[in-house]
Amino acid sequence: MSQQRPTNTLEPNKWIDNYADYLFNYAVVRVNNSDLAKDLVQETFFAGLKSAKNFEGKSTERTWLVSILKRKIIDHYRKINSKKGQAEVRMSFYDSGENEGRWLEERVPQSWGNDAAKSIESAELQKTIDDCINNLPEKYAMVFRMKTIQEFETEEICKELNITPSNLWVIIHRARTQLRSCMEENWFKN
Predict the structure, then answer these.
(1) Which part of the chain is the RNA polymerase sigma factor 70 region 4 type domain (predicted)?
(2) For 129-182, how does the pLDDT look when each residue is reduced to its tens digit (9 = 90+)?
């Protein structure tokens, strides 16, 4: 019985020309930081070179590199989110048009008359939101960030975390319920 040969092979000397732009665009959408996206793509290429012997040829080079990049992105968020208070909560304000990609924090009304109390209140609100998210169970926080803040697709989250879509929505619902309770307790009662 002959051994079946892989249908796809790796050509690392062509990765930059063939995949760098695609991988960069993929990463920058998910991390919203071009320098970080470049670093993640470089890490992906390096990891690909290190693990080339594990490539079985069952997928295309690009698919294999994207799967490495996805893992790098998830690892990045796990790392920053594991340190309490370091996660940056950003919520998209505009989905389309000339302001697409603007963040809610950038859209806070600036006409508060330079009132220092309002500035402090805004920073305290952000800290309370961060603390509430960080106090969620780890899986809830990760799923909430991936779906709500980082805007990963449902099927992508399910595949990466090995959960079903219905499980994902239960986790999102529970996370939102806990966040609402935390905000009511720590912000609105003050």
Answers:
(1) 129-179
(2) 888 888 999 888 888 888 877 778 888 888 888 888 888 889 988 988 898 888
Reduced to 3 states, what is the DSSP secondary structure of residue 103?
strand
CA distances from 146 to 29, 36, 151, 156 (A): 12, 17, 6, 10
**Conformation bin of residue 32: beta by default, left when phi > 0, alpha when psi is -120 to 50:** left
Encode 111-175 in three state secondary structure.
CCCCCHHHHHHHHHHHHHHHHHHHCCCHHHHHHHHHHHHCCCCHHHHHHHHCCCHHHHHHHHHHH
Tokens of residue 182, six digits: 């935390």
Q: What tokens were used for 102? A: 């603007």
Q: Which domains are delineated in the chain?
A: 12-82 (1.10.1740), 114-188 (1.10.10.10)
Nearest to 10 by CA among 39, 48, 66: 48
Interval 43-81: pLDDT, tens = 999 999 998 888 888 888 888 898 899 888 888 877 766
Environment class of 163 (CB within 10 Å of its CB; exposed 0-12, middle 13-18, buried 19+) = middle
Quote the CA–CA distance of 148 and 146 in Å, as a whole number: 6
Does the pTM exceed 0.85? no
Single-letter amino acid, residue 12:
P
**Dist. CA 46–CA 26, nearest whole Å:** 17
